[in-house]
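pasting for ref
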Amino acid sequence: MNTKFVISYDGSFYCGSQTQPNGLSVEDKLQEVFKHLNIDTKIVLSGRTDKDVHATGQVFNCQLPDYWKDLKKLKEILNRHLPLSIRVNKINFVNEDFHSRFYAKKRVYRYIITSKPTTAFNSRYVTYIKHIDENKIKEAIKLFIGTHDFEFFHKRGSDKENLVREVFDATFYKYRDIYVFKFTANSYLRSQIRLMVGFLLKINEGSFSKEDLLVQLNRQKHLYKTPASPYGLYLAKVYY
């Protein structure tokens, strides 16, 4: 039975979402628990998140044995055996041809910053920026909306041949005592969001202008190459 799972996780405990040779991944822990429950299945994630990147709405699908019809019970058992850094939010049966990655239409990420110095308890979940010019960032972030070739906004060495992505929405807003970058796109290149946020933070501090952003976005000159910290980044939701 093809089954869809929505999960959340604390990425600071893992080398990333997908199995890698250099450490423990979220996928590894999930497979370990499935094996413990005598469920022999392969997990298909909606997309990868890097080391220290979190998720509140990551999706994967897999095949369950026919006897696992009580999904409420399965959710309880999985959360009992999984570490507290991974939670199963929702489970439901889907069509046999459903594929969590290839069927995804939109993916939403949030990147969180604060002007308050971080503490030992939140430093892995939000990025500290001493001064935040809300209006300056709001104006610049709009430039990412649309279809662009993100050649200068992705990590080199990735295996992607097509670097064109469509950004449906890009906004910046304040929520209580934090500020949030929110991006909605069809998909993303490796480190794309962290590079976009990093450039916006350089505009925030006055090192670059929104005109400079257009120069890099139009691939006229590669001005900025350093991704923002992974700690403030969250995969929030996947739309199908």
